[in-house]
Amino acid sequence: MPAPPTPDPTPATPAEWVAFAVRLRREERNFSALAALDQALALDAAYEPAWMAKALLLEDLERYEDALAAYETLLTAQPAHVAAASNRAGLLLRLERFPEALASLDQALAADPQNDLLALNKGLLLWQAFDDAAAARPWLERAAAAGFPEAAQALAALAADH
């Protein structure tokens, strides 16, 4: 006879609620996970892991405006949160909101100016979305020097165009 299912725990702290939400998400119980994250935020409205997990979950649920609002809340409290600014840029790029995506990448780069992946993303965005090869080139050169093959390919395409 199989063991009875383990009852869901009753988390007491924001961290426990986020851990519970992560477990629920792994079990594809996304709406329950979202409710657990809301419980974490009810205990601590500024709890960064809950806002980040909520934004990512909302993206997965294709609730893009809600995800953007979650990123905004987190970034208002922590403007130098690189992952939130970078993820928000990726979502804005998916939504073809290019000027906002560029601003979000700039925010992430201001917080982490040595991040070569952000440099690659900025170069590709400037080249592909804004058709601004001159502005894209130094970002792509930096990313190519850091070893990103996508940057080297983009630079080769730029050279072939001019």
List the helices and strands and how they pair.
Elements: H1 14-26, H2 30-43, H3 48-60, H4 64-77, H5 82-94, H6 98-111, H7 116-128, H8 133-145, H9 149-161
Helix pairs in contact: 1-2, 1-3, 2-3, 3-4, 4-5, 5-6, 6-7, 7-8, 8-9
Short characterization:
With 162 residues, the chain is an all-alpha fold.
Description:
There is one protein chain. This protein has 162 residues and is mainly alpha-helical. The chain is built from 9 helices and no strands. Helix 4 (64-77) runs antiparallel to helix 5 (82-94), helix 6 (98-111) packs antiparallel against helix 7 (116-128) and helix 7 (116-128) packs antiparallel against helix 8 (133-145). The termini are far apart. The model has no long low-confidence stretch (mean pLDDT 94).
Keywords:
162 residues; mainly alpha; 9 helices
Rg calc? 20 Å
Structural class by helix and strand composition: mainly alpha
Count, helices? 9
Count of individual beta strands: 0
As a percent range, the share of strand residues is under 5%
Provide the succession of SSEs. HHHHHHHHH
Q: List unreliable stretches of 5+ residues.
A: none
How would you sum up the global shape?
A: elongated
Portion of residues in helices?
A: over 70%
Major β-sheet annotation: none
Distance between the termini: 73 Å
Roughly what is the average pLDDT, rounded to an integer?
Answer: 94
